[in-house]
Amino acid sequence: MTALETIGDQYGIYGFSGYGRDNVEFFVIKDFNETLDTKIKNRLDKVTPIRSTRMGPAIRHATFKLMETDAKVKILVLLSDGRPQDHGYGRDRTEKEYAIHDTKQALNEAKREGITPFALTVDRAGHDYLKTMCEDMGYEVVADIEALPSRLPALYRRLTE
Fold it and tell me: In a 3-state reduction of DSSP, which class is residue 117?
């Protein structure tokens, strides 16, 4: 956030959680029209895992929010600690195919709207599902979560070039 504030780029930060298709929550940490302040930093500090990782609806909602901005370059960075999964994302919680393909579909929908999607995970097993989920899109696995803060500026630079 500090780097984006320094260069003056417009951005939003959102979180999500799910428990079935009828119970997906989308949390505003920082909306596009908000200025970074103590209130927003406090929101970020309070982020904790809640339930499941139903990515598709969250990506679709973030895509809608990006489409409402007047930014010339629109990038959707999906930062996750694991694969998409949720109650009802298949026959049971161990089934991976539907969740991966729904997420891939949502990312493709964002691309069709002129948005550049990029998935970033700290899940060391991320290559297993990201190569399918992000077939023709960018993704990266950051195996060491401690390296994430130093990795983000270089990634952002690459995505905006």
Answer: strand
